[in-house]
Specification:
Elements lengths: L9 H4 L9 H4 L2 H10 L17 H14 L1 E3 L14 E3 L11 H15 L26 H22 L4 E4 L32 E5 L6 E6 L6 E6 L3 E6 L6 E6 L5 E6 L5 E6 L4 E5 L5 E5 L5 E7 L2 E9 L3 E6 L4 E7 L5 E7 L4 E6 L4 E5 L2 E8 L10 E3 L5 E6 L3 E6 L6 E8 L10 E3 L5 E5 L4 E6 L5 E6 L5 E6 L7 E5 L4 E4 L1
Antiparallel strand pairs: 1-2, 3-8, 4-31, 5-6, 6-7, 7-8, 9-10, 10-11, 11-12, 13-14, 14-15, 15-16, 17-18, 18-19, 19-20, 21-22, 22-23, 23-24, 25-26, 26-27, 27-28, 29-30, 30-31
Length: 502
């Protein structure tokens, strides 16, 4: 036998129930029967949700009207567009429907009153939203809407056709592709060792390349030897230049429909990637100029990097906040690294190429295990800015980031991957620009471009400015140190020129 621990009084038992009401229980039998006939039996806890079929064009039209003008048709009781106020949904009381003549409004009110009936008779009363006899729900598309759909379909088909008709090509600008021994410009006959153990700061301009007619966005020396130079420009082309000899343009690679943002060689230099704003990353043969493959995930790639030990895989940072890993052999998206909250600007391999660093507009820096889409180190400080350029020290123990508050920050590339707060480089103006960073082959000097067209050199140990020189009329966006000549540097700018310094 159970005992009652609380015995409520009668007035407590008959108090109204607290909380939301169940609409099904609030109806009596007669009202439920009437609602069933009209198809209005409540199907949610807060009332009745009507499921209606509306054409997508009609819905989008009314959606944009509501977003832009604050007024749209009530599609649950869809009327013609010129109907009166009760047939509209408005954002606020001040929004007004399309203006109606006074005589027409009086006539519409008269018709409505005739059809409303008396509120005393529940069966015949239709309320202020009653429709007129000649009105009907808009279920078919008008001629104007059909014409719009056809034009939109033609535009999409034309765009798809243009994408399919894109053909990649290249032009060789020299006299003979091969010499008397059958060797192409890929062959390097010099010594593949650093000419001197110590590097020096360049002092004078020795050559200017002016083949691009729009801003140059990136430059890359041929890996190991540096006898060739690759450049990417906003004129939709990639050019290969001869650094030794007559220093002329060897080949132009054409095939992108928008500006080329980034380029990157394989470790042996036989192939390279070009990432463009046309949402494609393309793989090219350096010697023949043939486009081997094209890769697209439908998003804009902002950077592309081959894995140093595996030329069959590469990473691309995209504007949809992801880093994607592509398999070149299968032309297949192998993996997605999705943790950033903004466009990914850089991807840099560190720690023996087992891990890589990604930086983004979300002012965060992530360390990833290559092949594993899980962040192993999250670097984010309240005073950190985004870093659109990253470079690794030749020793492999450090990497630096071009911070958007006009300073270069240093991070350890092994063990804890943390920010070195005692070491930073300042003095240049880089805010608002993705000025690339570069190291001398011996690791003694760090260099960076500048928003005012200057090139800065810092001493790595003392962090002091060793030298600064005026290089371009516009921002110096890219710089690279020659891998073998200890005192030669190349720079590029948005003024369309590439300059060689010694």
């Amino acid at each position: 036998m159970k005992s009652l621990s609380y015995n409520p009084r009668a007035d407590v038992l008959y108090k109204p129930v607290l909380g939301p009401r169940n609409p099904k229980k609030d109806y009596d039998n007669e009202m439920l029967a009437m609602a069933a006939e009209q198809g209005l039996i409540p199907n949610t806890h807060t009332g009745f949700v009507e499921r209606i079929a509306v054409d997508d064009v009609i819905f989008q039209e009314q959606y944009h009207n509501f977003a832009n003008k604050g007024v749209a048709l009530n599609l649950t009781t869809a009327r013609n567009i010129d109907d009166e106020e009760s047939n509209y949904v408005r954002q606020d009381l001040e929004s007004k429907p399309a203006p109606v003549d006074k005589d027409e409004r009086k006539q519409m009110k008269r018709k409505r009153k005739e059809l409303e009936g008396s509120a005393d008779n529940v069966d015949t009363f239709q309320g202020p939203w009653a429709g007129f006899g000649e009105q009907r729900i808009q279920t078919e598309l008008t001629d104007e809407q059909k014409k719009f759909i056809e034009e939109d379909a033609k535009k999409k088909a034309a765009k798809t056709k243009e994408d399919k008709e894109i053909t990649e090509s290249s032009t060789f600008h020299g006299k003979d592709l091969f010499d008397y021994q059958g060797r192409s410009y890929m062959y390097y006959s010099g010594d593949k060792k650093l000419a001197a153990e110590q590097c020096y700061i360049p002092k004078r301009l020795i050559h200017t390349w002016t083949g691009h007619n729009k801003p140059v966005n990136a430059i890359r020396f041929f890996p190991g030897t540096g006898h060739l130079l690759l450049s990417a420009s906003s004129d939709k082309t990639v050019k290969l230049w001869n650094v030794d000899g007559d220093r002329h343009c060897l080949r132009t690679y054409m095939g992108h429909q928008e500006a080329v943002r980034d380029i990157h060689f394989t470790s042996d230099g036989t192939r390279f990637l070009s990432a463009s704003y046309d949402k494609h990353v393309k793989l090219w043969d350096t010697e023949t100029g043939q486009c081997i493959a094209r890769f697209s995930s439908g998003k804009v790639p902002l950077c592309a990097r081959f894995h140093p030990d595996n030329p069959n895989e590469f990473l691309a940072g995209q504007n949809n906040k992801k880093v994607v890993q592509w398999d070149v052999r299968q032309n297949k998206l192998a993996l997605e690294y999705d943790e950033h909250l903004g466009p990914v600007n850089t991807v840099t391999f560190i720690d023996g190429n087992k891990k890589f660093v990604s930086t983004s507009d979300d002012k965060k820096m992530f360390i990833w295990e290559y092949g594993l889409p899980v962040v192993i180190k999250h670097i984010a400080e309240p005073d950190m800015h985004s870093m659109p350029a990253v470079a690794v020290h030749p020793s492999g123990k450090f990497y630096v980031g071009q911070s958007q508050d006009n300073q270069i920050l240093v991070f350890t590339a092994i063990n804890r991957y943390k920010l070195n707060r005692k070491k930073r480089f300042i003095g240049h103006l880089s805010a608002g620009y993705a000025c690339e960073l570069g190291f001398s082959p011996d690791g003694r000097y760090l260099m960076s471009g500048d928003a005012e067209g200057r090139l800065f050199f810092w001493d790595w140990k003392s962090q002091k400015i060793f030298k600064k020189m005026k290089c371009h009329d516009q921002v110096t966006i890219g710089c690279a140190w020659h891998p073998l000549d200890p005192s030669r540097v190349v720079t590029c700018s948005w003024d369309g020129t590439i300059k060689y310094w010694d």
